Amino acid sequence: METQRNERCIEIEDSEVNNEVLCRSVVGEVKAMCFLTKLPSFCKEQGLSRIEIKLLGGLEVLVVMENEDTATNVLKDREHGLRRWMHKMRRGDSLNRTSGRITWINVIGNPISCWCENMFRKIAAVHGTIMGLQNCRLEGNQNMAFGRVQIHTINKGLIKEDLFVNVKGKVHNISVVEEVRDILVKFSGVGYK
């Protein structure tokens, strides 16, 4: 099949779609980032012992239940304990694509004269919502080669951009590069088998 832009398109057969897993799953967002790693124990406390947690990116997770009835019961019960830690809950088979990812970007080449959190925020905000900063202030002993900014992004590809910053008439080249290792390492052990 050809797409409108004359790119390759792969046809997926019905037998290749994970219907069985998705039908017994619940998709939602954890209410706080720290809940991503604690979700398996929270589920166990609620009597959901035979579950699998799949990290979908950002705060979104897929909770695979033992059977379809369990998933249906969790969604119908407005008072279910799982709702203390998750919201925006819906059936797993309603999932079409992930809502982004939480990642770190390195900002390399920022002039020392404007090495401050506001400058790093301004640079990183183009790529997503700011969630945290590291090494973005002049106070303390640190490596001044790069500052790190944690963001939630919906960019489909890896972030790699060169840009220019004009400081008092002098133009500086700055590179913004996403850390690939963080995508896989941050929550190792949760959702990976």
Automatic annotation (TrEMBL):
Keywords (A to Z) from UniProt: Nucleotidyltransferase, RNA-directed DNA polymerase, Transferase
Molecular function in Gene Ontology: RNA-directed DNA polymerase activity
Name of the molecule in the record: RNA-directed DNA polymerase, eukaryota
The species this protein was found in: Artemisia annua (Sweet wormwood)
